[in-house]
Design goal:
The complex is a heterodimer of chains A (about 130) and B (about 240). Chain A has about 130 residues and is mostly helical. In chain A, about 65% of the residues lie in helices and about 0% in strands. The chains are: A mainly alpha (about 130), B alpha+beta (about 240). Chain A: This is 50S ribosomal protein L20.
Chain lengths: ~130, ~240
């Protein structure tokens, strides 16, 4: 890559790395290495985020993520975690239907307590 | 804990709003991600964002080209209409807010009734090219390149995993039988370029490769064939 392309890629870098070619070249190479690595990491991170969101959504209905997925597999529902997390955020009624199907297929959650509203002690005026 | 708390908050707000408003949320969200209409960006609009004007939110799904570039859709729709109605108004809006609230509303209702074709409130989860997408009629999406599809070809997608309407959900095990999503191929293009830079330190090894993945843009025209499937109905 010639100097012009390197300095174009170095926009937003800190200090001399955005202006001086010898420093910019090193930083841009590092940035490109990170982007190569992170394109693979992004897939892992997104899946982890989806699982957290599905977990949060199902725990509101008294089911945890593991039992929920087990129930879906038993019912041969092949929705992936990306779509499940989107449904849990934007389509609450469809998501509740999925949780009910999973719970009937695998009733594993006898001891899970539904989250109760915690009252802030300081807000009570006595 | 924090994530579950925020999830609870969003969940309750979703429950409080009707299911139509929940559809409203999805369409706005996906509108941002798919950037449907190229919108002319006008700098003065950014000033109007903090305005809180009264609206009838159910009519103003941002479907026309002037509305879509701004993230806060309901407030900024009114802001856009304001700018169009009163172009010479450079003074701070807080003084004139009461007048502005009255004026744009008839214009908004007229625009909404003129420009709102009948859109069915329905969505489907469809599997294309090994990936699953949530799909709405009238929107487009980018998928892996479909070989053998030319521009303006009608396409029927059969792997429909879930169909949802305002009142019922059809959950497929794994597929909703006889359901079909109709689409039209709009364009066979390439993804934006990704630079694949491989480097090993102290070994004088550098490889600089650019890559553009072929894709296909398809526009969804309709979702059919799901009616006879056992459904979960909302009892409300």
């Amino acid at each position: 890559m010639n100097k012009k392309e390197i300095l174009k890629l170095a926009k937003g870098f800190r200090g001399r790395a955005k202006n001086c070619i010898r420093i910019a070249r090193e930083r841009v190479e590092k940035a490109l290495q990170y982007s190569y690595r992170d394109r693979r990491n992004k897939k892992r991170d997104m899946r982890s985020l989806w699982i957290q969101r599905i977990n949060a959504g199902t725990r509101q209905h008294g089911v945890n993520y593991g039992n929920f997925m087990h129930g879906l597999i038993k019912e041969n529902i092949q929705l992936n975690r990306k779509v499940l997390s989107e449904i849990s955020m934007h389509e609450p009624y469809s998501f509740k239907a999925l949780v009910d199907i999973s719970r009937s297929a695998f009733p594993g959650n006898k001891n899970v307590v539904l989250p109760t509203r915690k009252v802030n002690v300081s807000s009570i005026n006595v | 804990m924090a994530s579950s708390a925020t999830a609870t908050a969003t969940f309750t707000t979703l429950l409080l709003s009707s299911s139509f408003a929940a559809q409203c949320n999805i369409s706005n969200h996906h509108r941002q991600s798919s950037s449907l209409f190229p919108a002319p960006k006008t700098p003065p609009l950014s000033i109007f964002k903090p305005l809180s004007l009264k609206l009838t939110p159910s009519f103003l799904l941002p479907k026309t080209s002037t509305f879509s570039s701004i993230p806060k859709s309901s407030e900024s729709d009114a802001a856009v209409v304001d700018v169009e109605l009163e172009p010479g108004n450079a003074e701070p809006e807080s003084q004139f807010q009461s007048e502005l609230e009255v004026e744009p509303e008839p214009a908004q209702v007229v625009e909404a009734s003129k420009e709102e074709p009948k859109r069915e409130e329905i969505f489907a989860v469809v599997m294309i090219g090994g990936r699953q997408y949530i799909v709405f009629p009238g929107r487009y999406l980018y998928t892996q390149r479909l070989k053998g599809a030319n521009v303006d070809d009608k396409i029927v997608l059969n792997k429909v995993l879930l169909v949802g309407t305002k009142t019922t959900t059809y959950i497929g095990k794994p597929v909703v039988t006889n359901a079909a999503v109709h689409a039209v191929v709009e364009e066979q293009g390439l993804n934006p370029k990704v630079v694949v830079f491989k480097y090993k330190k102290k070994k004088n090894y550098r490889r600089n490769i650019g890559h553009r993945q072929p894709n296909t843009r398809i526009r969804i025209t309709g979702i059919t064939g799901y009616q006879d499937y056992p459904a979960v109905t909302l009892n409300s």
